[in-house]
Input
Amino acid sequence: MQVSQTSSLFKQPLFSVDAVLFSIVDNQLSVLLVDRAIVPYKGCWALPGGYVNVDIDSCTDSTARRKLKEKTGVEPPYLEQLQSFSGVDRDPRGYSVTLAYYALVGYQLVSSNIDTVEDAQWWSIDSLVELNLAFDHQFIIEKALYRVQQKSLYSMLPVYCLAKQFTIAQLKMAIEVIIGKSIQRKSLIRRIEASDMFEIVDEKIASGGRLAQLYQLRNGVDLISFERNFSR
Amino acid sequence: MQVSQTSSLFKQPLFSVDAVLFSIVDNQLSVLLVDRAIVPYKGCWALPGGYVNVDIDSCTDSTARRKLKEKTGVEPPYLEQLQSFSGVDRDPRGYSVTLAYYALVGYQLVSSNIDTVEDAQWWSIDSLVELNLAFDHQFIIEKALYRVQQKSLYSMLPVYCLAKQFTIAQLKMAIEVIIGKSIQRKSLIRRIEASDMFEIVDEKIASGGRLAQLYQLRNGVDLISFERNFSR
DNA sequence: AGAATAGTGTCTGTCAGACACTATAGA
DNA sequence: TCTATAGTGTCTGACAGACACTATTCT
Output
């Protein structure tokens, strides 16, 4: 193991990477968890994650993506660092540091994939309290949830919970499920126009009444931020 | 070194903690750097940082605070995780992960302290490009600067660059120096009143004209966020 | 035609920007 | 009194909330 001259005086903490993957399942904000096959916390539900492979991971982002792919088959369109959690108490094996990521994915994009993987399952945010998660993963999920909620107040983040093509009503639903509050259709439309992130698809879909316009992300656009929040 | 069964297959990356400490020196946003005494990058200016001591650091926040204290004598009133930076190229000794923090402190609070420490010095943000910093520290500082600027648009973060007691004009100056744009006195006063973060000190100080009211942080208040930004 | 959903028009409220105004200190 | 800085009053503009209105589809 590589240890520099200056660090050899100290034990290094064990470093891992975890990911909180969000999606919307049956109108409920949900996270994807895996059933731990090994001690500690064997048999408990936990965030998908693991250790950096210094030979193949160009950086920790790659580790997060690789672990998500290996353990759940999912390749999310949005992935971002959340924060690091550390301490001597969070892992019974000793002092540890985990770097947590959060990611969003459209449920329909993974519902096929996920069948190929054993013991990975979506859990609604509300159902987690009864689940007794491994390590401090409950706490990490709470932090990730807060971040996603905050960011959803001033950006179009929730689009990443949708399919490639989506309607305004679907985006409105995703935002409302995430922030836990209803918003005005009109306000959302104003933001869609102002953001210039989306393009109109030459197709409409049935929805019980008038046909709904489909939208999709423009090629290569970044998530843009607005100067004001949806009110809380 | 503690290595779990599951991780023993892999080399662990070298994990360190660094801090970007901001203050305002002569009306310039500045960061505190230390002169590296050891290889690699010996003699280069670098962020104060180091390795976790698992025996005394309760978490990485403690590591960041401890390293700041040891290397520069500073105990900042505001410290927050920025993000982690990783990769095989950022440190010639091999694959490394650093967890970067950013912090703010009033210059007058440290200008005495700093004399006790060798080779720690304030550098204005603008002067950094000519400095050839160690590792990817220039990049980390840019990210930290962006975060501080963003956060200063919707919170009172810049107060942590001031002395315990301060005037509205001083706070206005701090905000303007950080975000790089002038703001309206009136807008700031509205935010001060709305935030309820501050209390009036029973004292005023001279400033060339009418005496200026002194303010200070209320006991135990948190940094609050506004729903709207100062415009960019 | 009636119900349901999509999409528009437009008024209100809030808050940042602008800027003129008053207040109070020192020279 | 003059100048400089502190602090207020108030209008404007941008944008979110509210909600009624029109448009289009299906039954």
About this structure: Strands of chain B lie at 14-25, 28-35, 45-46, 49-50, 78-87, 96-104, 120-124, 165-166, 198-205, 212-217. The CA atoms of residues 78 and 137 of chain B lie 20 Å apart. Helices of chain B lie at 60-72, 107-110, 137-154, 168-179, 185-195.
